[in-house]
Amino acid sequence: MSELYGHCRLHDLGVFGVRGRDAVAFLQGQLSQDVAQLDAVHARFAGYHNPQGRVIAILRLLRTDDGVGCVLPRELVAPVAERLRRYVLRAKLTLTDDSEDTQVIGEARDGSRVLRLVPSGDSTILPGPPIARAAWHAFDIAAGLPQVYRATSEAFVAQMLNLDLVDGIAFDKGCYTGQEIIARAHYRGRVKRRMQRFRTRAPGALALVPASAVTLADGRTAQVIDAATRPDGRIEFLAVAPFGEGGGAPATHDPPPESHHPQPVAIDVEALPLPYALPA
Fold first, then answer.
1. Which of 95, 122, 152 is the last residue of a domain?
2. Which helix (H) or strand (E) holds 271?
3. Residue partners of 189: CB distance under 8 A and separation at least 6
4. In Å, how far from its chain's centre is CA 173?
5. How many domains in the chain?
6. What are phi and psi of 114, to 5 degrees?
7. 148 and 10 share one domain
8. In a shared domain, residues 10 and 145
9. Is there a single domain that holds both residue 148 and residue 201?
10. In this predicted model, what pLDDT tens digit does every residue of 60-90 receive, in sequence order?
11. Residue 17 above 70 pLDDT?
């Protein structure tokens, strides 16, 4: 896949802002990322988890002048923000949905891609030509970047989405919701299901959406995380599946993900490499 150059308006992503003197400390106790290490240029992954370690949402975090900008699919902005508000208590901060006032812009140049938050209506000239949203999405999948949507919220534990392999978990920070389960899986046990990358062998054979359940040719059952249709009509997708042919029963700390598609559909695919190594 050739490199991208230019900018992409990521209209399907929304933003909520956490502002105030306690913003960083509050998010530090809620998310898996070390929020104190954020900057305004490099968006960093973070997981927001339930007490069982299942991922409610995956956020991309950026420092702003007055707090932290949290980027995630628009369909999850309101429910995630409302859930976080329950824990604000006496913290000195505000938590607001900024999706209508802020554009999420992807910029690609010099072989790297970054996210920027730009006020809606801002006339700043963006770098390079426009990039189609589908092309940016395809690069996300090729890069093995996890995402959670409404259909997959609370279906997977953090390591099943490779959140630890994209620097989305700080194992040396303090406690946060779900931390005990996530740390136990990291230090004591092997996660037997991981997000992997696949491509259908035939074009247009099947519509794949997040939470679709499929049976691979070797008998493994996989749950789709994200998918994109290639120009040739084949589908490239990320899915959580057991390692190796035939897989195996998940460990007790690694419960099988729930699926909204209980009857898996057989599909002929080829495995593709990820740009990072999965644990042995």
1. 152
2. strand 269-272
3. 251, 253, 254
4. 20
5. 2
6. -135, 160
7. yes
8. yes
9. no
10. 999 999 999 999 999 999 999 999 999 999 9
11. yes
